[in-house]
Amino acid sequence: MSKSNSMAGPGTSIMEEKELESKKDKRKPPKTLPKPKRSRQFSRDGSLTPLNRKNHEDGYGFPRYPGHGTRSMSIRSQPEDPCYTCLRTTVHCYNIIILIIGLGVLGIGIWLLVAEFSAREVSVLIGTNFLELATYLMVGAGGAIALLAFCGCCGTMREDKCVLAFYGATLLVTIFALIASSTLAFLSLGMTVAMKNDMQETLSYKYGVDLRKNSENRLITDAWDSLQRSFECCGPHGDANSTSSWAFYKLHSQWYTQTNMRAPYVPESCCRDGNKAICTGIETINGAPTRGPPMDKLYVHNDFLYTEGCYDKVLDNMRRNVYILGGVASIVPLLLIIGIIVVFCMCCKVRKDEFEEEQDI
Fold first, then answer.
1. Nearest by Cα to 131 from 223, 21, 215, 247
2. Strands in the chain per DSSP E
3. CA dihedral 49, 54, 58, 59 (to 10 degrees)
4. pTM for this entry
5. What's the pLDDT tens digit per position in 67-114?
6. Rounded to whole angstroms, what are the CA distances from 32 to 35, 59, 60?
7. What's phi and psi for 271, nearest 5 deg?
């Protein structure tokens, strides 16, 4: 007996058997696939934002038009604007240049402050602190520029508009500081007319007087000693026959009056290396500083004593420092202005990209 006949019971017709077999041959209906969950996208602030199904999803949760009207999880994953890439590269290179310039400006300012005859000592002798203030401004500006170069690198890498804006604004303040430094430096040159009288006054009434109690007199004394050693001069101004050069100490200074009108006639800072006793007059010779001025032809020349006054040499040194300060404070701002323009352009570009991303999301 066949399989179909065995399944059919007794008394079953042929038509009923065929109908049963046809029902067994029919396949089961296919199961419908579960619909995938909707995909999600991170917005820039880190929150989850559902994609727009109508415009950006097909029936299975995948974007219909990838990249159209939506942004990826990171800006850098999208093709960057060539202009923005150029700006970022320019800022990186500019920061390296600015770092070198800042360290250079800082080094020049420190050198002017710690040199053997520093800007502070010059300011004490000429009676105005314009040159000293200009030097301190340069030191501060140089340190700020070097620090800003690092800050600019961080802002460029992070593409943080706040850091970039702070970078550009501080560069602008640094420019004003450098301009003020240059102005003060050149104003100090206008004081050279009265500088000769100020030098005579400080040497006459404050050099070597009451050094233990009076800090100003002590600073003036150190400044004069440093000046005379550095420039190999003695006294305010004039030549060997002048009463205002080496002879000023024994003729017009209270420092000499305190010695009861006896040797030494000049301080040791007026002496070359060698016999200080002959130079200062402790060991008497027929010549300066014991005798004279004027210097008679019969007088013995003192090889250990500086006989030229210091005014002309101070003026030359002061002009050199002012030209250094003025030159640096005039050229560096031009470079900083270029950096400000580039940084603010990049800052605006970053803000524009963020606004477009928020609109698309």
1. 223
2. 40-42, 48-50
3. 100
4. 0.62
5. 444 443 333 444 456 766 776 777 778 778 888 888 888 888 898 888
6. 9, 13, 13
7. -110, 145
